[in-house]
Amino acid sequence: MIYHRKKSYWFIIAAAVYLMLVSASLVLIALNRNSVYDRSNRLFSGEKYFYFNHQLILRDPQITDNTYSRDLFSTEGQRLRYNDENVPTWFGIDVSEFQDWIRWSRVKEDGVEFVFARIGYRGYSEGVMHKDSTFEYNYTEIHRNGIPMGIYFFSQAVNEAEAVEEAEFVLSLLGGRALELPIVFDWEFVSYEARTGNISPDTLSSACNAFCDRIEAAGYPAMVYTNLYGAYTKYNFSAINRRDIWLAEYDGSPTFRYHFEVLQYTSSGTVHGIDGDVDLNLMFIDPSSYLTRTGSSE
C-alpha cells in the first residue's frame, strides 16, 4: 500500500509538470501566430520570438528588420546574386596578411568593386595590438587601381577604454589618409579561454560604440562586423543596431532577422590575383554613398 501511494504521488507530479509544459507551449504558439518552422534556426521563427542554437530570443521590434527575400538570392559559380532590379548590389572582398601579396590589377579585372583591408588586430591572449604586415602595400595598390576601400580592425577589447585605444591605434596608422568606405569594428568570439571569453553583451556593446564614436569623431564612417552568434548572443544588438552592419553568414540565403548592409557569404572564394582562399561579400549600399559621410582627405 505504501508503494502504491508513492507511485500515485509521483504520477500526479508528472501529470502536473506535463500540463505546465503544454500550457507554456500553447502560450508561446499564441504569441507567435505566424510562426513557421525554420531549419536554419533549428526550431521556429515568429513575430515575437525566434530560436537560435536552441536559445529562445525575444525579437526586438525597435530594430529594423532584414527586408531581403531569401528566394531572390542565387549563385552563379562563386558569385552570389540578389535578383531584384530595384535593389542594386556590389561585389567585393576582404583581405589581410593571410592573403599575402595580392596582384590588385588582376583583382579589379575580375570584377571586384570594393575591398575591406585589415589594418591591424589585437591578440586574444596577451592583448597586444599589431599592424597588419600587408596594409601599406594594400592601401597603395588598391587606390592605385581605383577600387573603393574600407578598413577593419580585429578587436579583442574587453572594455570601452581598450576599444578607444584600438580606435586611436587605427587612426594613428591611417594618418588622415582617405578611405571610400567605413572603418569596421571586427570583434569576434575566440574561446572562453581567451581574455575576452566572458565579456558581457552590455560591455561588448559599449566597447563597440566607443570605438565607432571615436572613428566618427575623426571624420570617418564606422561599421560593425558580426556573425549570427555574435549578433544574437554576444552583443546586445539593440544597443548597436544604429550602425551599418557587415554580416557574416554562409548559408547562401541569409536568415539573419535584422538589417545588414554588407553580407560576407563565404570564406573560401577565389579571385584572380589572389593565391588561395578569400572572403567574398555582397554590398547593398552604393559604395560611393559613403564618400559623403567622410571628412578625411589625402
Give a structural overview.
- The protein contains 6 helices and 15 strands.
- By secondary structure, it is α/β, with parallel strands linked by helices.
- The chain folds into 2 domains: about 1-60, no CATH class; about 70-295, Glycosidases (TIM Barrel, Alpha-Beta Barrel), CATH 3.20.20.80.
Short recap of the structure:
By secondary structure, the chain is of the alpha/beta class.
Sum up the structure in keywords.
29% helix, 298 residues, single chain, 8-stranded mixed barrel, TIM Barrel, 6 helices, disordered N terminus, alpha/beta, two-stranded antiparallel ribbon, 2 domains
The CATH architecture of the largest domain can be given as Alpha-Beta Barrel
Give the count of helical stretches: 6
Largest beta-sheet details: 8 strands, mixed, barrel
* Helical fraction: 25-40%
CATH class of the largest domain: Alpha Beta
SSE order: HEEEEEEEHEEHEHEHEHEEE
Widest sheet: strand ordering: 7-8-10-11-12-13-14-15
Q: What is the overall shape? A: globular
* Percentage of β-strand residues: 25-35%
Distance between the termini: 91 Å
Q: Per CATH, what is the topology of the largest domain?
A: TIM Barrel
Overall pLDDT metric? 86
Write down the Rg. Answer: 23 Å
Number of strands: 15
Question: Segments where pLDDT lies below 50 for 5+ residues?
Answer: 1-7, 26-46
CATH superfamily of the largest domain: Glycosidases
Write the layout of secondary structure elements.
Elements: H1 2-31, E1 36-37, E2 44-45, E3 49-52, E4 55-58, E5 73-76, E6 79-82, E7 90-95, H2 104-109, E8 114-122, E9 129-131, H3 135-144, E10 149-155, H4 160-174, E11 183-187, H5 201-217, E12 222-227, H6 228-234, E13 244-248, E14 262-269, E15 278-283
Parallel strand pairs: 7-8, 8-10, 10-11, 11-12, 12-13, 13-14
Antiparallel strand pairs: 1-2, 3-4, 5-6, 7-15, 8-9, 14-15
Helix pairs in contact: 4-5
